[in-house]
Amino acid sequence: MAIVDLTALRRDIASLNEQGTQGASGSAFDLGCRTVDGIFRGGLQRGALHEIFAKESGDAGAATGFVIALALRASANLSPILWIEEDFTGNEHGFPYAPGLHYLGLDPKRVIFVRCSSPHNVLKAAADSLGIRGMGAVIIAPWGHPKCLDLTASRKLLLSAQQAEVPAFLLRLGAVPGENAAVTRWLIRAATSQSPGANAPGNPVFQVQLIRNRQGNTGQWLLQWESENHVFQRIEPVFGSVVSTSSYGSSQTRKFAARPF
């Protein structure tokens, strides 16, 4: 869609909030992992713009999963999460899969999806929607390096997020880092999960690199997302079981699904 019906959107968000929970209170959130949280000064800013990149094109699913995890950490239970996506992003990586959202701990009923025909409309919809009362988080997913996503546009998103105290997560697929107003910038790569046994799937694991932090230091960690209690846990890498390949290598040598969420 090219234009967001803000009246209808406010009505949908109000309906979700009537289920018992308003947006998260306070001006900061954390990851639930003491090692990572220690580098931030009082937590990550809630009313801010946070930018997440896939390290390689094949890591789009991991970056998407990490964004969902951040949105869950930053928002109260049941508060609505608005997901604004360019059509081309969905065409390249598929539409978010409801069982995958459940796997990460996100009830699909909390998510309001908005599809836009152009990156300009994505950014306009995001700026307009950040000011809606009761929003838990806004995920913004244009494709690649649109010219309209310049320093001025990113500053507008940051200002809107600050004024509303609503976290804005800019999911950058098909892109590499450049100059903008994001408060934090994360580079995400898929990692091998650790099965609890009986060939059962393990919790999602991410290779996480924080390459920008306007609140302090940067760093890199291997983090496991605990889907049941919505916290990150730092784990030690497993050596000797993963073979690194190009993201364009064969599916037999690198096993992950493009955007399984």
Question: Could you walk me through the main structural features you see in this protein, from its secondary elements to its overall organization?
Answer:
Helix content is 27%, strand content 23%. With 261 residues, the protein is an alpha/beta fold. The chain has one domain (6-190, 200-234): P-loop containing nucleotide triphosphate hydrolases (Rossmann fold, 3-Layer(aba) Sandwich), CATH 3.40.50.300. The protein has a nine-stranded mixed beta sheet with strand order 5-4-6-7-3-8-9-10-11, sandwiched between helices. The chain has a two-stranded antiparallel sheet with strand order 1-2. The protein starts with 5 loop residues before the first helix and ends in a 27-residue tail after the last strand. The model is unreliable at 18-23 and 241-260 (pLDDT under 50).
Ends apart, CA distance between termini: 21 Å
CATH class reads: Alpha Beta
CATH homologous superfamily? P-loop containing nucleotide triphosphate hydrolases
Strand content: 15-25%
Shape: globular
Helix percentage: 25-40%
Quote the average pLDDT: 83
User: In order across it, which strands form the biggest sheet?
Assistant: 5-4-6-7-3-8-9-10-11
- Main sheet properties: 9 strands, mixed
**Continuous helix count:** 7
